[in-house]
Amino acid sequence: MRDLLGRPLRNLRLSVTDRCNLRCQYCMPEDDYVWLPREDVLHFEETSALVDIFLSLGVDKIRLTGGEPLLRRDLASLVAMIAAKTGLKDLALTTNGVLLEEQIEGLKTAGLRRITVSLDTLDRARFKALTRFDQLDAVHAGIAAARRVFGALKIDTVVIRGVNDDEIGPLVEYGRRANAEVRFIEYMDVGGASRWSPARVFSRQEILDAVARCYGAVTAIEEPGSTAPAERFALPDGTTFGIIASTTDPFCRTCDRSRLTADGMWYLCLYATHGVDLRGPLRRGATADELKTIVAAGWRGRADRGAEERLALGERRAFVPVQDLLRKDPHLEMHTRGG
Ligand code: SAM
Description:
This protein has 339 residues and is of the alpha/beta class. 34% of the residues lie in helices and 16% in strands. The protein contains twelve helices and twelve strands. It has helices at 44-56, 75-83, 100-110, 124-131, 136-150, 168-178, 204-215, 279-283, 288-300, 306-312, 323-328, 334-337; strands spanning 11-15, 61-65, 90-95, 114-118, 153-159, 180-186, 219-220, 231-234, 240-244, 257-260, 265-267, 276-277. It has a twelve-stranded mixed beta sheet with strand order 7-8-9-6-5-4-3-2-1-10-11-12. The protein starts with 10 loop residues before the first strand and ends with a helix. The structure holds S-adenosylmethionine (SAM).
C-alpha cells in the first residue's frame, strides 16, 4: 500500500505512554504538562488489535516508544503479544535507559529484538542540567545490561550547540566500548521543543567535521535502497556511527513511518497537526475490516512532508511557539506522539 508520494506503509512507532521520568530540555522543558486521560489509554488487547490491522496492511517493523516506554506497567506482556504475531520482521524499543537494567531480561525473554538508548552527555552535572534528574549512573547500568543481554545496541544523541557539541568524540569512543553504534541527531523543532532555535542546531556537516577532527577520515557507508533515517559512516578503524539530519537534510521522500499514540491517535508525520482517531471506532466495536478501511484510506491519502516543509520556511522558529496550544492539544507534543 503506497501513499500519494509512492511511499509504502512499513514502520510503526507505538507510543505506550506519554509519561516520562526525565525532563530533557529539548523535549519536555516546561514545568507542567497536560497528560492523556487514563481512561483513554489503550489496554494491551486494544493495542494488539490495532497492531494486527497495521500488520495486515504492510507494517513489518514496530518500535515501542513514548514518553518513556519502561514506565508502562508490565510492558513485557505487550512485547510478548506483539512478538508472537506473524509478519513482523523487527520489534525494537527506544528508552532513556533509566529503568532498563531491571527490565531488560524480561523484555528479551518476551521477544524484544533490539534496543536503542538515548544518551546525550557523559558528564554527570550536564546530564542533570539537561534532564533535571541525576540518573546518569542508571543509564550507564542500562547500557551495560543491554550489551550483556542483547550483545549490541544503538545510542541516540541529540546534539545541541553550546550544550553537548564538545562530546561528539567521547561519545563515539563510549559507543565503541559499549558495542553500541552511536547516532547523532540534529536538534529538531518538533512540538514540545519550545526552546528550539536555528542557532542551536549543530548540523550534519558540523558533526562530521567534529568526528573527523577526533578520528581522521570518515567514509560514508553506501546502503542502496535503505529507507532508514540515519546515514551511516565508518572510521579508519572500522567503528561505525550514524547521523540523522532531520533538520538540515530531511528524509521525507523515503519516510515509511507513522505513529500511534498511547490513546490510539494515528499520526502520519511528526509535524502533522491532526491525527486519525482509531480508539473511537475500536471502542465502538468497529470490525477489523472497518478499521482496515480507515487506515488504508489514511495512508493512501498521505502527502505529508513535514520536515521538508519546515526547511522550506527558511526563517524558522519552534514548531508550536505558543505553550497554550500544547496545553490544548497534548498530541502536538513529541513525548505524546512518540519520538
Ligand atoms: N523516552 C524515550 C527516550 O528517551 O529514548 C523514548 C521517547 S523520546 C521522545 C525518543 C527520542 O526522541 C529520543 O532519542 C530523544 O532524544 C528524541 N527527541 C526528543 N526531542 C527531540 C528534538 N527536539 N530533536 C531531536 N530529537 C528529539
